[in-house]
Amino acid sequence: MDIELLDRVIVKAKAAAYVGGGEENRSSRARSRDLAWREGEWRYLDSYFGGSDFIGQEIIWRDDVPVWGMNYYGFILRPDLIDASRAGATIKAALSALYEQGRFLGGFEWIGTHGTYIDENSGDASRFRGREIIMVDGRQVYALDYGGGLVRP
User: Fold this and answer.
1) How many domains does the chain have?
2) 3-state SS string for 115-140
């Protein structure tokens, strides 16, 4: 698998789905929220459950063969300082800025109206793990843990 090509596909899919306000597809599992993207031989699905605390999975297929995936779990730590709506707005704006750089890994910091978004991770698209947080007034108010990589037969 060409990791540079896969990186470009991942960024394009992520930017079009959650960050880009992509249309929700019919739920693939009871009560899941599903965002999909498709272009040529590539297909992407982000399927998650919950709101202020949530869990999900992203998968990329090439010619209907799963080639890459990521799992994540995010949660509000300080509902007195941030709610799901403000956290979501911060995440979307920060990730939009990150994807404009043509990447989704490599660490990132972004300051917005509702707090400072910080992402730290290790690895590359073939195998990675990371954590994103939002800080408000020097306090961690939100966190999301994620990891994933190539799917091989």
Assistant:
1) 1
2) EEEEEEEEEECCEEEEEEEEEECCEE
Q: Answer whether 117's CB lies under 8 Å from 98's CB.
A: no
Could you tell me the CA-to-CA distances from 152 to 32, 46, 66, 104, 149 in Å, in that order? 25, 19, 8, 21, 10
Place of tokens 């992509």: 22
Q: What is the DSSP letter of 77?
A: S
Q: 136 is in which domain, residue-wise?
A: 3-150
**pLDDT the model gives residue 24:** 87
Which own/partner pairs from 77-80 qualify as long-range (CB within 8 Å, at least 24 positions apart)? 77/140, 77/141, 77/142, 77/143, 78/136, 78/139, 78/140, 78/141, 78/142, 79/52
Question: Each residue of 3-30: pLDDT tens digit?
Answer: 999 999 999 999 999 999 887 889 999 9
Q: Which two three-digit tokens encode residue 86?
A: 């403000």
How many Cβ atoms are within 10 Å of 130's Cβ, its own excluded?
21
Q: 0.85 cut: is pTM over it?
A: yes
